[in-house]
Amino acid sequence: MKLFDVYSLFDVVPVKGLGCKVWDDKGQEYLDLYGGHAVISVGHSHPKYVADITDQLGKISFYSNSVINPLQEKLAEKIQKLSGYTDYSLFLCNSGAESNENALKLASFHTKRDKVVAFKRSFHGRTSGAVAVTDNPKIVSPFNANHKVVFAEFNNIESVKEALKGDDVAAVIVEGIQGCGGIHIPTPEFFQQLSAECKKHGTVLILDEIQSGYGRSGKFFAHQHTGIKPDIITMAKGIANGFPCGAILISPEFEPVKGMLGTTFGGNYLAMAAAISVAEIFEQEKLVENAAKVGKYLLDNMPKSAKIKEVRGLGMMIGLEFNEPIKEIRTKLLFEKHIFTGVAGTNMIRLLPPLCLTIEECDRFLKAFKECL
User: Fold this and answer.
1) Which candidate, 221, 211, 220, places its Cα nearest to that of 351?
2) Architecture of the 49-284 domain
3) Of all residues in the chain, what percent are helix, strand and coil, respectively (each to 5)?
4) Cβ contact 242:45 at 8 Å
5) What does the pLDDT profile of the chain (373 residues) look like in tens digits?
6) Ramachandran region of residue 264, left (φ > 0), alpha (ψ -120 to 50) or beta?
7) Of 89, 255, 266, 318, which is the most exposed, with the fewest CB atoms less than 10 Å away?
8) Cα–Cα nearest to 289, from 224, 209, 356, 242
9) CA quadruple 232, 288, 74, 179: dihedral positive or negative?
10) Domain positions in the chain
């Protein structure tokens, strides 16, 4: 049987990882500045993380959500402390797309409306509702295309006001920092006005923090740079360092009803052990603070070049936009300098390293990057 051929693959076979480094099947070491799409938050094969999952596996790995799982309550306490959202509720699922699906469904239940406002250049996932609010027609099938969605201009409040004026919008969904769309950062004024407009029209504000959250921006959530409190916050990626896990934080204004949301695998024992371990490592190693400090160092020391149009980012979510396609530079970084990076479109290199990245590892990248320009 062949694999369904939907991925463009580099000829690299990682077999081992530790911290911000991975090794391939030939023994070659690589510096990982992409973290597998921003998923690796505490570093590859962190010893505490490995021990905690192994320990849980020896006890019980799975049962359904028809019984009490104290690990779910423990994770809720950890996220409450890390995020500062003391009065919000936690719903657990398995992925970023599923987090956004549940957030959109909850908003629709709450408002009794079926229309959504998203933003141009957005990415929210590949399942039915999530891909419908993603601004990429190439990945939206006819089946997904019939949702009632309006795409507003990011950082343009007048565009949002126009979309909300009919008082028929269930939710506005927006990324804390646009990731796949090119590392576009909202202004504090835009997010503050957006929050006010949603309140004015009885519309639920959903903050997609799947890529930009969990410490990556130098605060626990990227929207916390702007001083707002959305109604629902979606999470995944870094929450469990590679173990499939997603979650949403829900304002106390929402009333839970038995059966309105549900999942088979969400909140399972192994996922909870992984996520609790990540939260504890965040506290012990001060990874949010490290993301802010080391990310600023990377941004401040980025080489200057006529090839680079603009450098954008916060913390360890950085985009290097070029005046030309970056395929050759990225290929050199991977196969000559042995450094993993990501992309956003054809002209942008994206850096989403583990949050334990060190200054010394930054210097290794900066030297190699300069030589590849």
Assistant:
1) 211
2) 3-Layer(aba) Sandwich (3.40)
3) 35, 20, 45
4) no
5) 999 999 999 999 999 999 999 999 999 999 999 999 999 999 999 999 999 999 999 999 999 999 999 999 999 999 999 999 999 999 999 999 999 999 999 999 999 999 999 999 999 999 999 999 999 999 999 999 999 999 999 999 999 999 999 999 999 999 999 999 999 999 999 999 999 999 999 999 999 999 999 999 999 999 999 999 999 999 999 999 999 999 999 999 999 999 999 999 999 999 999 999 999 999 999 999 999 999 999 999 999 999 999 999 999 999 999 999 999 999 999 999 999 999 999 999 999 999 999 999 999 999 999 999 9
6) alpha
7) 255
8) 356
9) positive
10) 14-46+286-372, 49-284
**Taking the mean position of all CA atoms in its chain, how far away is CA 243?**
14
In sequence order, what DSSP letters do the residues of 233-292 get, joined into one string?
EEE-GGGTTTS--EEEEE-TTSPP-TTSS--SSTT-HHHHHHHHHHHHHHHHHTHHHHHH
DSSP string, 141-196: -TTTTTSEEEEEPTT-HHHHHHHHTTS-EEEEEEESSBTTTT-BPPPHHHHHHHHH
Q: How far apart are CA 234 and CA 79, in angstroms?
A: 13
Strand order in the sheet with 339-340: 14-18, 21-24, 29-32, 339-340
* CATH fold of the domain at 14-46+286-372: Aspartate Aminotransferase, domain 1 (3.90.1150)
Q: How far apart are CA 233 and CA 88, in angstroms?
A: 10
Distance between first and last Cα of the chain: 42
Same fold, 14-46+286-372 and 49-284: no
- Please tell me the pTM assigned to this model: 0.97
For residue 80, the cross-strand partners are: none
Distance of CA 258 to the CA centre of its chain: 28
Neighbours of 111 (CB within 10 A): 18
